[in-house]
Amino acid sequence: MLLCGRLASRASRLPIATGARSHYSRHASTGNSKVYNQTLRLPQTDFPQRPQRPANYAATSRHLADQIYAWQLANNPGPQFILHDGPPYANGDLHLGHALNRITKDIINRYQVLRGRRVRYIPGWDCHGLPIELKALAKLGTANGKAPATDAGDGAAASLDPLKIRRVARKTALTTLEAQKRELQEWGVLADWDVVYRTLDLDYEVRQLGVFRTMVEKGLIYRRTRPVYWSPSSRTALAEAELEYKADHRSQSAYVRFPMTVDATLAKRLGVQLQTLHNRPVYALIWTTTPWTLPANRAIAVHPEIEYVLVDPTSSGHDGSTTPQTGDTGPGPLYIVAKARLADLSAKLGLPADAPGSTTVAGSHLVGLTYLHPLNETILPVIAASYVTADSGTGLVHTAPGHGLEDYEACLALGIPAYAPVDDRGCFTAEAGPALIGKPVLTEGNRAVLDLLTAAGALLHRETIVHSYPYDWRSKQPVIQRATPQWFANLHSIQTPAIRALDAVAALPASSITRLQGYVAGRKEWCISRQRAWGVPIPVLYNEATGEALCTAATIDHIIGVLQERGTDAWWYGSVADFIPPAYRNDGQTYRRGTDTMDVWFDSGTSWTLLEAFRPPADQDPQPLADLYLEGSDQHRGWFQSSLLTAIATTGRAPFRKLVTHGFTLDAEGRKMSKSLGNVIDPRTVVQGGADRRRQPALGIDGLRLWVASTEYTKDVTVSDQALVTVGDTLRKFRNTARFMLGNLETGTVGETNEVITDVDRYALLELNDFLAQATAAYDALAFNKVYQHLARFTNAFLSAFYFDITKDRLYAEAPASSRRRSTQVVLHHLLRGYASVLAPLTIHLAEEIHHHHQKRVSEPSPSPVPASTVETADSSVAKPASVYAQPWPTPNPEWENSSLRHTWRALLPVRDEAMLALERARQEKHIGRSLDADLVFYISEGPLAAQCREAGRLFNMVPDDLAEVFIVSNVHLTTDPAEWRRGQSEGAYLAVGNTVPVNYPVAPHHGVVEGTVQVAVRQATKHKCPRCWRLCSAGVDALCPRCREVVGGIEDAATA
């Protein structure tokens, strides 16, 4: 049985016509075929082959985005969805990290709009803080004829009026903010751009001060002089979240001996006779990596349960004798160290590796002894501390309560005050002594201390070590710990409820919750004060005489009232009397304003307060204010944590329902992008192209967005020129795929009621169902890289390489109104609707172009996404945009489901794969030039399948005509005769033979399953080439095949009618 197949591959080489030209193409050809070119229904569309230039998209996309945002907020029927924006810093240009962050958020929001939810997204900016203040200082320095300030340690900040700094800083932040805002709008970020939030806005600052006031009322805010991380380069205190740890920091470490007070108490505690210590100095030996803190030493700490030993470096090490070795002129020194440290200390300091017979005592015996400070001859105590270990150093710890939190807490319990002779520049003060005054502690001052120790005979050994050390994350300079009076939030009482609240928060990746809980559990307090001018003032007055802070809920309420009326700048220029509440104006005291400002993490961490306005007035729902927070993984230490802590402290609940974190953008070698490495890729280069267009082509906004979608953003993301080129190629494939579909739809010919009649079309709808289900599941899981992969696979493997190849013949060569052609056009209609919707959150411009051109083609308008009667909050005054976002999300259609058909095609596809391999072998061996030069012979071996095939003349429920179309050959022959099959092989009629494939599938109409095996052979087509469709299924040379003869006849009849 021989029947014809499909249009020759020449049609696939013909370009898609554009503009208003006729569908009947007049492309040049050779031979008799040119007579029939005008009768082919080739694709025609004005859908552009290339996107517009990025600049041409900007204005229209902003306008359409504004329309979409307003319309969906007023008319979408679903619940409200709030993705709360973590404010980026208003400093510098946007980079790829910003693109990863903001576009990922926008994909989420746009998908939620498509699913019918009312998305509320308010972009924000973090506008206070040091980097902006430094820029302001640089500008003020230049304006005043001075060299620009290079860091906050310059004298500019101290000498300038804070109001001048604040005015310039505000202008600097707003200028940068507006530039960033314009670029974000160009990226297509869907938002209410008229209602952005800025941490410098008065209403925001007032809400922030309200949170501070509530925390004061709850007793969570206090002031204390204690060690904090201090940045000499920034001249301000830092919180843990503002630190970066540099793994290769180099420090000078030192072994230093402190002379013990030798008396009867010492001898008794050590368990030796006093005469044994006669004229023999006894030293407590310590090791430190911060020699500069030694002038602030106030104690030596030991662990009560560690064993300590009194060792003699000059002893023989065999009998424990303290007799001086030969050549010594007098008794040598004795050292107290942890017994467990002897082996490690022997090589460096010459101590015996073990000390048999030496006195060993528990650390508790040493507590209460005294020693003499080698630099200032102060008598100081030995104290107990549980944090001391024998894992490193000597087992005795130099303790400076002004330069370490553990030291501070251990000394505080004993009434030993913090002492830190270091100023805010990180230089020694006069209290450290004339030899050290003014020297920077981390450099020159550190060397000077070592020199003083050497001169005092206290330095036994020094060496350079490489270790992890904290740096200021803004200035990239090392920090110190320094005791200063600061304001703190007490986290002890809110740690447990915060950690418990996180148990109810979803996260992507799931490890985010554990990580955030770990950070919260590790913090006991939060230093919230900063010694800068550009920030929100801490609203506290101080008694001039006593220095005592006046800080109550009532005093803060009064101050907030003044600031709300005059602005926060008034804190620096208004009369102090205005800020004193009436109850304190006649108490006979004089007050001054504080000069500290709030930590910027407190600024941004209270941004959740603006969401309270979107909760219905009567809503007492304890659910979180935001559905989602999404930021970089570094925000576990930053915004995620500060938002959680301030919300728990004031409302008792977490402000977010779900946390999503993304990684950092890295270059192809896995390095962080930085200007110094020259590996930064500017988003504008991605959009507009680089100097070398082959290496850095212009991808447009859609290309930038598609790159973001292609990444597995929950991990660090590597980006390279080649990766971006690949994304650009994929985007072009998406565009050309849509263009093909649009080109094969004619205006007004396809409506919702057209029938799908062929199995390949029905199978295409099954594939569309699967694709929509996969894409929906990936979007729901926020796995946008999987959406990208599903799109690419559906486009390349199914549409382009399968369905389009199969259906080109009927689209181009069959009669315009034929039922088979209409069937495929109906499928193209559904494909376009689903394709545009799935693309819409990713490639906003391409999706809108597809939607616009598709709407012009269909005869029946797409239904409104929601009947008006079901939208309680619908606002008819807001115009419905002509946008894909005003259409319903395309979910899988149950009417397209057909389990029998699905089973049949699963059986067919492995046979088709074998046939394609056999055709390729025949092509490689030069037997055929193209698949239409061939016929296929299907051999069905004896059994139920063969019997059914002989009875019905079908295989896979298809007649040979349909099989020829699916297998893209000119003719198909079915045989169940083994003799005929062997004869074809023996006579060499078969050009290539595929492997045997076992198959089973249900047979219509009774749906019983038949089983058998199928083998495919390729043979030369035996008929003649049709000059119109190029299939080899014509009866004679230059004769039309039966199908084409009928189509051409119909066209001629219509022309003469």
From TrEMBL:
SUPFAM superfamilies reported for this sequence: Anticodon-binding domain of a subclass of class I aminoacyl-tRNA synthetases, Nucleotidylyl transferase, ValRS/IleRS/LeuRS editing domain
Keyword Transmembrane helix: no
Any one GO molecular-function label of the UniProt entry: ATP binding
Cellular component terms per the entry's GO annotation: mitochondrion
PROSITE patterns to which the protein is assigned, alphabetical: AA_TRNA_LIGASE_I
GO biological process: isoleucyl-tRNA aminoacylation; mitochondrial translation
Superkingdom of origin: Eukaryota
Family annotation (InterPro entries): aa-tRNA-synth_I_CS, aa-tRNA-synth_Ia, Anticodon_Ile_BEm, Ile-tRNA-ligase, Ile-tRNA-ligase_type1, Ile-tRNA_ligase, M/V/L/I-tRNA-synth_anticd-bd, Rossmann-like_a/b/a_fold
Pfam families to which the protein is assigned, alphabetical: Anticodon_1 (PF08264), tRNA-synt_1 (PF00133)
Compartments (UniProt record): Cytoplasm; Mitochondrion
Catalytic reactions on record: tRNA(Ile) + L-isoleucine + ATP = L-isoleucyl-tRNA(Ile) + AMP + diphosphate
Keywords carried by this UniProt record: Aminoacyl-tRNA synthetase, ATP-binding, Ligase, Nucleotide-binding, Protein biosynthesis
Stretches assigned to the Methionyl/Valyl/Leucyl/Isoleucyl-tRNA synthetase anticodon-binding domain: 761-936
Residue ranges constituting the Aminoacyl-tRNA synthetase class Ia domain according to the UniProt record: 74-719
Cited Gene3D superfamilies: 1.10.730.20, HUPs, Ile-tRNA synthetase CP2 domain-like, Valyl/Leucyl/Isoleucyl-tRNA synthetase, editing domain
Entry's EC annotation: 6.1.1.5
Main location: cytoplasm
Positions of region (Disordered): 853-878
NCBIfam families according to UniProt: ileS
Membership in a protein family: Belongs to the class-I aminoacyl-tRNA synthetase family.
Protein name: Isoleucine--tRNA ligase, mitochondrial
Organism taxonomic ancestry: Eukaryota, Fungi, Fungi incertae sedis, Zoopagomycota, Kickxellomycotina
